[in-house]
Amino acid sequence: xxxxxxxxxxxxxxxxxxxxASGRPDGPGAARPAAGHGPFWVDPDTSAARQLAAxxxxxxxxxxxxxxxxxxxxxxxxxxxxxxxxxxxxxxxxAAGAGRTAxxxxxxxxxRDCGQFSRGGAPDGDAYRRWVxxxxxxxxxxxxxxxxEPDAVLHLVDGCTPEPFHEARYALLKGAVxxxxxxxxxxxxxxxxxxxxxxxxxxxxxxxxAGIEAADGFAVNVSNFQTTRASRAFGERLSAKVGGxxxxxxxxxxxxGPYTGGDPAENWCNPPGRxxxxxxxxxxxxxxxxxxxxxxxxxxxxxxCRGGPPAGTWWPEYALALADNSR
Length: 327
Hints:
Elements: H1 2-5, H2 47-57, H3 61-71, E1 77-79, H4 85-97, E2 102-106, H5 125-139, E3 144-148, H6 154-157, H7 166-180, E4 186-191, H8 204-209, E5 217-220, H9 228-241, E6 246-250, E7 289-293, H10 316-325
């Protein structure tokens, strides 16, 4: 269990958020797309955007300025459970209408998160395949960047997911990659852990079994805090082992690097003193890094630890701290 907790802490990945939320903010406090966020779409209806509008209406300009650092950046739309086709069509349609690309994080694999803070997922393989089909139909011919199933491969490697489920999970991931890549404008990145977990030597064969050959690449540091420098080095080593595949780095909360002041088994869960990292962009200096993304939605809890609410729940105090600590 401790080994599993050291992975990416997907209890804080946002899987509990409602992808069909409504009530878009308007007025002077509403989020506006910020310059320099690269190709990705800024959703005007995130929790951060609504918090910004609330602070602005209340005249709390100091807090509004902090939350604006989050609200004006593109973040991942976590797609988890339910019937996702309409929600995905809405996100990708809005993004395409703005000349941008939606960032989708698919998080519905059966036996998700080993029964921890973000447990759940599709009830079985057939349900998952139908769910992926709905996602693909929702995307249609519109552009989308997909981060596929945070921790799904890692929890096979570390033994957190029981052995009887391994073959089925590999087949589901491979099938998901192949189905999504039938859409003409989709890029798929299979989650591959973080630089604080294990050596890339442990991941190349599992990623192959999970369909990396048909994918555009892999994602590192999702919902974690490893520095961009460490994440790049980790990703480049792994890339060399999987045919030169490219990768994306989640920089949403890695501005101060990982927390080392508590129980190592819990340092992934709402750690104090963390900061926003590099803003989302495709301008990464070249190499195998396609983009810095904010897959994790900054300000959403990692789980009920250190006084936090359930996983995926907006936590204004934590969001303010992340913004206040960032450059």
